[in-house]
């Protein structure tokens, strides 16, 4: 059931945005059980035109969730299984020699990065050289191969996954590349009730499927609307104070977040307000989005790690102190 919103202007899209999101979440829930926060944050990242890093233990449906969101939004989807022997050309594409009319010429063969949603599965298993091949695509929305530059289709998102365990043979993402991800999303184990539903749903002969709810034009309109959501000065100032407080050396924080985090926090709060059906940003939006925005942008001290503090606990302490 693809939406026909592409023929309407932004004001019309805004009027029906609540119904669009309700339909979108209902459709995704046909396949994904629980994980409401994860799905919402992935969609919020897309509304902000940002990329997301999804982390959890194996088997919690990261790949299925991302591919389901792409299908519901009617976006071209490709998957890259990252391994230590993966080369940059395996991602970006390469020039091949092709014979045409008796003459040989080079033809560019696009790689899997030429899609709307690119899933980089287990990105920390790719070598640093291959990881860096994604940097230009993430930041500039383009790919350079040799002397040629190719623009990527809009909208474009990289949703990467990584496992916090089985670290042998992995290459941790450098801070410069981590900072290019708008969100770091943590996926937890399902509840008892959700796991019963998962077992019931995926042990039947008929597997659940998802229908198309959005199209590219509507999604681009929603991205524009996200940036137009009003935010009061006091709420904006609170967001900036939260980010700047991470730069104050303490016994728990070694390095803080850059201004890119301030921009991301404001945009993410606007996206959350839009998804929640409000036309203004609240302090609750700022606090809720501070976790996925900051958890990969601050580096804890040895003392914090020694005492077993997690990044989320440090963020929680910051939020409690900022008025």
Radius of gyration: 21 Å
How would you classify the helix and strand content by structural class? Answer: alpha/beta
Major β-sheet, in short?
Answer: 5 strands, parallel
Placed side by side, the strands forming the largest sheet appear as 2-5-8-1-9
Q: How big a fraction of the residues is strand?
A: 15-25%
State mean pLDDT (0 to 100 scale): 83
Total E-strand runs: 11
Number of H/I helices: 14
Q: What oligomerization state is this entry in?
A: single chain
State the low-pLDDT regions, or none.
1-8
Shape: globular
Relative helix content: 40-55%
Encode the helix/strand succession as letters. Answer: HHHEHEHEEEHEEEHEHHHEHHEHH
End-to-end span in angstroms? 45 Å
What features would you describe in this structure?
Mean pLDDT is about 85; it is low at about 1-10. The protein is globular and about 75 Å long. α10 packs parallel to α12. It contains 14 helices and eleven strands. The strands form four sheets. The chain has a five-stranded parallel sheet with strand order 2-5-8-1-9. A two-stranded antiparallel ribbon has the order 3-4. A two-stranded antiparallel ribbon has the order 6-7. The protein has about 325 residues and is of the alpha/beta class.
């Amino acid at each position: 059931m693809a939406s026909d919103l592409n023929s309407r202007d932004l004001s019309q899209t805004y009027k029906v945005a609540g119904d669009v999101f309700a339909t979108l979440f209902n459709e995704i829930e046909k396949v994904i059980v629980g994980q409401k926060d994860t799905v919402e944050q992935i969609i919020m990242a897309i509304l902000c035109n940002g990329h997301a890093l999804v982390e959890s233990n194996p088997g919690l449906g990261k790949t299925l969730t991302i591919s389901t969101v792409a299908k519901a939004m009617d976006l071209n989807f490709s998957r890259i299984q990252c391994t230590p022997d993966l080369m940059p050309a395996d991602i970006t594409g390469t020039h091949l020699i092709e014979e045409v009319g008796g003459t040989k010429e080079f033809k560019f063969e696009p790689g899997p990065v030429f899609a709307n949603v690119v899933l980089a599965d287990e990105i920390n298993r790719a070598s640093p050289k291959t990881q860096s091949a994604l940097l230009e695509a993430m930041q500039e929305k383009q790919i350079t191969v040799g002397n040629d530059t190719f623009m990527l289709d809009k909208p474009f998102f990289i949703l990467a996954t990584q496992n916090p365990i089985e670290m042998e043979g992995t290459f941790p993402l450098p801070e410069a590349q981590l900072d290019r991800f708008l969100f770091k999303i943590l996926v937890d184990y399902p509840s008892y009730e959700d796991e019963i539903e998962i077992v019931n749903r995926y042990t039947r002969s008929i597997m659940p499927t998802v229908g198309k709810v959005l199209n590219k034009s509507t999604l681009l309109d929603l991205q524009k609307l996200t940036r137009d959501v009003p935010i009061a000065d006091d709420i904006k100032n609170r967001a900036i104070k939260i980010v700047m407080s991470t730069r104050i050396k303490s016994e728990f924080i070694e390095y803080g977040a850059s201004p890119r985090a301030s921009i991301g926090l404001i945009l993410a709060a606007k996206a959350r307000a839009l998804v929640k059906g409000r036309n203004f940003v609240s302090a609750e939006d700022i606090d809720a989005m501070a976790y996925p925005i900051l958890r990969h942008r601050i580096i804890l001290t040895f003392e914090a790690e020694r005492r077993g503090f997690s990044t989320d606990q440090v963020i929680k302490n910051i939020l409690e102190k900022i008025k």
